[in-house]
Structures are given as structure tokens and as C-alpha cells.
Amino acid sequence: MINILVVGSGGREHALGWKLASSPKVGIVYHAPGNGGTANNVDIGAEEIERLAQFASDNDCLTVVGPEVPLAAGIVDSFEKKGLEIFGPTRQAAQLESSKVWAKNFMKRNGILTARFEIFDDASKAKEYAKSVGYPLVVKADGLAAGKGVIVCDDANDAVSAIDKILVEKSFGNAGLRVILEERIDGVEASYIAISDGNVAYPMATSQDHKRIYDDDKGPNTGGMGAYSPTSIIGKSLGAQIQKDVIEKTVSSMRKEGIPFKGFLYAGIMVRDGKPYVLEFNARMGDPECQPIMVRMESDLVDYIQASIRGTLSSLPQISWKDQSAVCVVLASRGYPDSYPKDEEITGLDANDEISHVFHAGTRRANGKVLTNGGRVLGVTATGDTLQGAISNAYDRVERISWPSKYCRTDIGKKGSWIW
Ligand code: AMP
Ligand code: GLY
Predict the structure, then answer these.
(1) N or C: which end of the chain has fewer CB within 10 A?
(2) Is residue 164 scored above 60 in pLDDT?
(3) Of ligand 1's atoms, which has the minimum distance to the CA of residue 268?
(4) pLDDT for the residue numbered 419
């Protein structure tokens, strides 16, 4: 039996741990630090690499890393040096996410379709450029900024204030030593995630996130307010094109450059005029995309994780998926993505069943109660024979759960039914 250590504390990690625990090959699934919904929590933070390694070694664990920060800090390099089995990219490979400048240059030199861009470290030169181009821009800080370092602009004035925010006010610290000014691509966005062993990559199911806080995609960006899978935005032929021109090209180019990419490779795609532009890469699973993807996955995830680590993915069949839709509605605390109350008691958390699962994110347990402990609190995930059915199953479950500051979007999955 294989013991697993899942690193992280979000809904993504709860869903990964839940899926792994269903494998007949898996023994104990530990979560570090986990949340109020995960079992076998270990009191070690996701960034305490040395302590995590000691725990994994003492408990004979294969380690699965959820979030980007420990990957960018080199958790995989450090575990590998110690001879410990760990799933995810090395620090250098994780640059696909941790440095947007690195990722854009990588795409350019390898002919991967992405928005045209320029890179600046000097504010006045950046502003001059922003005023001179004739198309709307997106201004991005280079480094990791918890999803906040991207500012989508309507005109040159917006771009100038975004440049000031990043390069002059240094709102993102060292993550904002350089900015990317790139063309705004107006299209429809979807998530394409694959699993790679450094040689080949197998697609996970397609999905679409809902990044804005309010219905109809209004308000500021968040980590993601809900997701569904599969998405008709990426049909068979576009999926095959993304697999070949984005995923396989990335995996083979990384290998050629001497930085093989192992782990989940997530391409944020904008489809414009039928063409897939890469907006960003993530070196990990998406959150909340992970939740609907995991409930649809039929194959044993641990087989694919071991094959990724060992470089033997091509010996496995393609991953199989339930022929159903799945929807995850994120329940947040009112005020997120800014400040929000904590420690409110959550009621109505009935047992999970075949149709719906509640994955925890910002929760903790105290005195037999489940309390809120973060901005995104729960991910209510349900399946259905149609997208519409999955949506109503998810919202039925959402209605039974409550706490004083509970907030969710009421339109998760809707755009999946009306876009195409
Ligand atoms: P990123 O973290 O780079 O994916 O950016 C966050 C969000 O900003 C994306 O999910 C898109 O909604 C939006 N975005 C990023 N780059 C662009 C672009 N070039 N054109 C339009 N929207 C973009
Ligand atoms: N849901 C978007 C992300 O995980 O980056």
C-alpha cells in the first residue's frame, strides 16, 4: 500500500486527497496542513519543506504538491535530493508559472501562440510604450502574486496606473520588478490541464473557471468562484489542437531545453477566432477546476502520478472519464477577495453521496464544530447527466449549507450552456 502526503490546504487538495483515498493501492492519505474537511491532518505548513520531507520520510509517503508556492521554492528538488518520491515540477520547470517573463519568452522562442508582448523594468519606458500602442493592454507583474498581479486594461490611462502600481508603488514587492505589457485578447477562456512525465502528456478533462467575484463575470478577479467540466468551448478538434500545439510542444521544448516538466501542466487558454492563445501556464492543478475534474475521473489517479514521477506515462492508457457533467460552486465568505469575517459556524454539512461532494477549503474544526477560516470556504461539487442537471444538483446542495456571511455566485456553469 502507498501512503500519500498531500501538501496544501485548499479545495483542490481536499479533492486530490479524496480521489487518491479511493484507490485500492493507497493506504493512509495525510494532509499538510489540510483543513476542516480533510482527514489525517499534519500540523506542518505547505512551505515548510524540510519538515515536510522529514514527515514523508518517517511515514514512507509519496508526496503530492497542490499549490504553486512550494513548487516555485524547490520542494521537488529538495525531496528528490533526499531520494523521496514526489509529484510535481522542479523549481526550474515551475518557472512556467513562477515567472511570467520566463514563460512568455519560452513561448516566443518555441512558437507557442500567445498574445504579443513587451517586457519592461523601467516605468517611464513602459508608460511610453503603453501610450504608443493602438490596442488594449493587459499589464502583468512577473512573479507570483496570488492571482492579483494581472491587470486587464481598457485604455492607456488604465495601463499607466497599472504600471505605477507594479513598478513604482511596488504593490507586489519583488514579484513586480518587471512587467509584461501584452495585447488584450478578447475571446472565451477555458482551462486545459494535462499530466506529464517529462516525455509525453495525457489530457485531463477540460474545464472552465469563473474568475470574477460577481454573477455575469462582474467585479474583481478571485482565485476562482466555480468551475465545470467538460466545457464545450474546447470541442474535439480544438482540444486536439491544444494538446498538440500547446501541451506537447511545451513538454518537448522543455525537455529539449534540459528542464523536463513533470506534474500537472495547466494552460489558461483564450479562444479568439477559433485559435487557442495561451494566457498563462500554471505548474499545478487548478483550483476550483480540480474538484469537478476529480469527481469525473474514472482511472486511478495514483497510477498516473507514479508514472509521471517514473517517466513511464506512455505505458498507461489514456485517462478515462465519466460521461457526465460536474459543477463546483465555491461558497465564500462575504468580502472575499478582500477582507472577510472568520470563525463563523457552518451548518447543514450533511454526508456526501453519489451525486454531490462538499470539498472544504477555508475551514477548521473546533469543539466538534466546523468554522470558517478563509475567503473561499467550501466547493460544493455535483455531477449530472447534463450540465444543467449538474448545476441544479450543486445548487440544491448549496441551499442546505449556511453560515452568516455565506456568499456564492448564482450562475456557475450557465455560460457553459449558452456560449456555443
Ligand atoms: P493570468 O494569471 O495571466 O491567467 O491572468 C489572469 C486573468 O486575466 C486571466 O484568467 C484572464 O481572464 C485575464 N487575462 C490575462 N491575460 C490576458 C490577455 N492577454 N487578454 C485578455 N485577458 C487576459
Ligand atoms: N482557477 C485558476 C487557477 O487555479 O489558477
Answers:
(1) N
(2) yes
(3) 4
(4) 45
Q: Read off the pLDDT of residues 371-385 as tens digits, 9 standing for 90 and up.
A: 999 999 999 999 999
The answer as to CATH 3.30.470.20 being correct for domain 188-315 is: yes
What are phi and psi for residue 361, nearest 5 degrees?
-130, -90
Going by pLDDT thresholds of 50, 70 and 90, the confidence category of residue 168 is: confident
375: left (phi over 0), alpha (psi -120 to 50) or beta: alpha
pLDDT of res. 134:
83
Cα–Cα distance, 187 to 321 (Å, whole number)? 27
Do residues 348 and 335 lie in contact, with contact meaning Cβ atoms separated by under 8 Å?
Answer: no
Show me where the domains of the chain are located. Answer: 2-87, 116-183, 188-315, 325-417
By most ligand atoms within 8 Å of CB, the mutation choice from 117, 138, 158, 281 for ligand 1 is 138
Q: Angle at CA 158, nearest 5°, toward 156 and 163?
A: 90
Q: Which fold has domain 325-417?
A: Glycinamide Ribonucleotide Synthetase; Chain A, domain 4 (3.90.600)
Q: Which of 280, 287, 415 to mutate to test the pocket of ligand 1 (most atoms within 8 A of CB)?
A: 280
In ligand 1, the atom with minimum distance to the C-alpha of 277 is 19
189 lines ligand 1 (CB under 6 A): yes
| pLDDT, tens digit (0-9, with 9 covering 90-100), for 147-159 | 788 889 998 899 9
Q: What is the pLDDT of residue 418?
A: 57
The fold adopted by the segment(s) 116-183 is: Dna Ligase; domain 1 (3.30.1490)
Verify whether ligand 1 is closer than 6 Å to residue 181 (CB atom).
no
The CATH code of domain 2-87 reads: 3.40.50.20
